[in-house]
Structure formats: C-alpha cells, structure tokens
Write a structure and sequence with these properties.
The complex is a heterodimer of chains A (about 110) and B (about 200).
Chain A lengths: L3 H13 L1 H6 L3 H10 L17 H8 L5 H11 L2 E3 L5 E3 L8 H13 L1
Antiparallel strand pairs in A: 1-2
Helix pairs in contact in A: 3-6, 5-6
Chain B lengths: L5 H10 L7 H25 L3 H4 L3 H4 L2 H5 L15 H5 L4 H10 L1 H9 L5 H21 L21 H13 L3 H4 L17
The chains are: A mainly alpha (about 110), B mainly alpha (about 200).
Amino acid sequence: MKYPTLYAAAVAAALSCPAAFAADVDAEAAESLARQNGCFKCHAIDKVKDAPSYQAVAAKYKGKPDAEAKLIKHINSGEKVRFDDGHEEEHKVIKTKDEPRQRNLVRWILSL
Amino acid sequence: MTTDRGTGGLWRTWARPGTRRSLAALLAAGFIAGIVFWGGFNTALDATNSLDFCISCHEMRDTVFQEYKESVHYNNRSGVRAICSDCHVPRDWTHKMLRKAKAGFELWGKLTGSIDTPGKFEARRIVLATHEWERMQASGSRECRNCHAFDAMALARQKPQARKRHTEAAQIGKTCIDCHKGIAHLLPAEYVEENE
C-alpha cells in the first residue's frame, strides 16, 4: 500500500461519521431494543428528559473513533451519570446481553 | 348415572333422612369430609401459585422467567424473593378466585398454542402486558403494596431521583405500576413511554 497512514485515517474518519453507522444499522430493531429495556423512561430521541436526547449523544460523540466502545461500556457497566442538579447516579445496565443487538443499538444512537 | 331404581330412586335415596347413623355421626363425618375437601382444595390452589407450576410450561419458562431471573425481584442483596404469584395473583380470597377463574383463558391459550413459540410470544407481549398493567392499575398496585408502601419508605436513604419521584407520586396519588412497568420482564417492543 502506497499511503498506509492516509488509508488508516480515511477508514477511521468513515467509521466515526454518522453516515457510516447509519449504513449498517437496523433502526427498527435498535428502537425496539431500547423500548424493551426501558431506555425511553429517561431518554428520548430528540428531547431532553432526565437524560440527554439521543441526538445530543450522537452530537457529543461525533467524529470520535472510540464512540461505539464507550457507549457499549456505558450501557453495560452501570457507570455514574450526572443529573442536571449535579448529583450522580449509576446508569441502568441494559438487560439484553446479546452483543450484536447492543452494538446495533449503539450504532443507531450514533447515527441520529 | 342411573341405578336399577332409576334416577328418581337415586334422588329419593339421597333425600331420605338417615335411619342407621346418628345425627352426631353424620355431622362429624360431614365435618371431617369438609376439612379434607377444603384442605385438598387449598393445597391444590397453593400448588398453582408455586414457581415450579408457573414455569412448568415452556411458554413462561423460556421467555418471561429468563427475564425475571435477571431482575431484582429474583436476586438481590437482601435475599428476599418475589415469585410470579406474589405479583400476579391477589392474596385475598375473592380476588384470588376471580384471578384463578380468569386463568382459564390461559389454558385456552395453551391449548390453541397462541404463544407457543418465541415469535408468537413477542407478537402478543404488548397485549398480555397491557392486560396485566390494566389489572394492576385497577387495583392500585395491590400486589406490589403487599411488600412496598409509601409510608414505609425511608426516602432519605433513597437515591435523589427515586426520592423525588416517590415524593411526587405519593402526592398525586400514583401507584407503583404507573411508573414501574417492565421491571421484572422486558417491555414490549411497541411500548411508548409518556412524554417520549
């Protein structure tokens, strides 16, 4: 390969942009998984509830190559999240442990 | 059933006053038979409330039971477990019997195979869940309140978000199921939250 660095950068950029996530996302399955796990109790797609909208999450992680890994960890680890009043609580852990379905959900969120 | 005297003769036999046994003996026999019958009935009824009975069908064992096993109602730091009947069958006699009578429809569902595959179950989950939520809402979350009560909550020891929600809920007359849907099972894929 003549320009390996350039190629790697192009791949990283493609993977980190929403269009790349959107291409291989099953949006219907992702939204169903979010509903089954009660994600919409705190989140919404385009409005702020107790938690930021999914569109805001996508914007926050836009262009970050580790976005998918971070969100997978976020929904599985029960890590602390900060509320508007400043207090912190553990994020709910997703009940569905199927890794491909989780990955599809995360990619859908990042594609919004 | 008939005898050589016909059904009329059988009825006369049943209706005829006893001539060989004393009234005390008949009453004692009836009393003992009543205890045996009532005990047997209650034992059978209790058996249908057991976890083993509930998961004796694959329809429950392969779906909602697997989800429940991941929930705090199955496994928690205090070691207190709520089984299916604790949440889905009323404790008091009248409501329990009404619920058991309605469970006859579940037998019909079993016979017709309405949820006998995971796909069929998922397709009907929103219908089944809605029935149960409506039942719980109509009773003011009676089965939840067998163990949980607003006035027994140490709000100061709850997480801030839970404290805020429980305080508001108590003030405006909400009960458990208004907010806590899908805590022991997955929510239906079609379920839409309020204010979504």
